[in-house]
Fold this sequence. Notes:
By secondary structure, the protein is mainly β. It has one domain (about 1-65). About 5% of the residues lie in helices and about 45% in strands.
Amino acid sequence: MLRELVGGGDVVERYYYNRVDLDNDGTPELIAMAAGQYICGSAGCPTFILRKSQAGYTLVADLELSKAPIYRVLGYEI
């Protein structure tokens, strides 16, 4: 799914991800950053928030470009 979100092909060289309960519902969302020479630049890399569903994962947010590390600000909910 992540490969499709960034345009497919071989542009994704690796992924960085973590599971964090962003909305305090007891189920962690997946924050995933795709990295690769052709998709990352000085502004960062494509980053997505995904939620687990019965069909797999569904896209919650496309953060466009972000840089690592990504922090969760306490008290803020999506």
